[in-house]
Design goal:
This protein has 193 residues and is mostly helical. Helix content is 76%, strand content 0%. It contains ten helices and no strands. Helix 6 crosses helix 9 and helix 9 packs antiparallel against helix 10. It is elongated.
């Protein structure tokens, strides 16, 4: 049983080191040798788990999307109003971004993955965000939310929080609790009728 755990630990160490390097150096700012050193593994070990850099980045991106989705719907309560549900999701997204600075700071790197990878992962990710899709559908049907496609509503919902969290983490802006509340109101206003 220990060898399987060691494999998982090494793979996770490689993924974690990749995320750290992406956040600090960018996609092309580090070598596999540097990655291996950061992860505490031999360079060849990286290739035991990942065919190439693209496969590594793609798997890391998929893992981040999963963690993001899980965090977004923590405490999701269908008994609340649509606005309360939406703002809970937005608050969860904000806190995920703030509590995972390497993810937030490396987002731009993932935005520049090859289009076929982005399209594939985006279509796969929609199933993880079903509670949000249900919220949008109910909001459209009850005319509480603008009649826009899910992609547009999701972009209006998520992108501002990720951008603002990045700016906050870099010290460009300061977002306190009151400001976050105002941002959530503005976010709801952006998608509501």
């Amino acid at each position: 049983m220990a060898p399987a755990a060691a494999k998982i630990d090494k793979k996770q160490a490689i993924l974690s080191a990749t995320l750290e390097l992406l956040a600090s150096c960018g996609f092309h700012g580090f070598s596999i040798k540097q990655l291996a050193a950061r992860a505490g593994v031999a360079t060849g070990t990286v290739y035991l788990y990942f065919k190439d850099r693209e496969a590594l980045i793609s798997e890391l991106h998929a893992a981040i999307i999963l963690a993001f989705a899980e965090a977004a719907f923590e405490g999701h309560d269908l008994e609340q109003s649509l606005k309360q549900q939406y703002q809970r999701i937005c608050s969860n997204i904000w806190h995920f971004c703030i509590n995972h600075p390497d993810v937030t700071l490396s987002k731009a790197q993932f935005d520049h993955l090859p289009p076929e990878i982005l399209r594939s992962q985006r279509s796969d990710a929609w199933s993880l965000f079903q509670p949000l899709m249900d919220l949008f559908e109910l909001g459209r049907s009850t005319q509480q939310i603008k009649n826009l496609p899910n992609d547009v509503l999701a972009s209006l919902s998520f992108e501002p929080y990720m951008f603002l969290a990045r700016q906050h983490l870099l010290g460009v802006i300061e977002v306190d609790t009151k400001e976050l509340s105002n941002i959530m109101e503005a976010s709801w206003d952006a998608i509501s009728r």
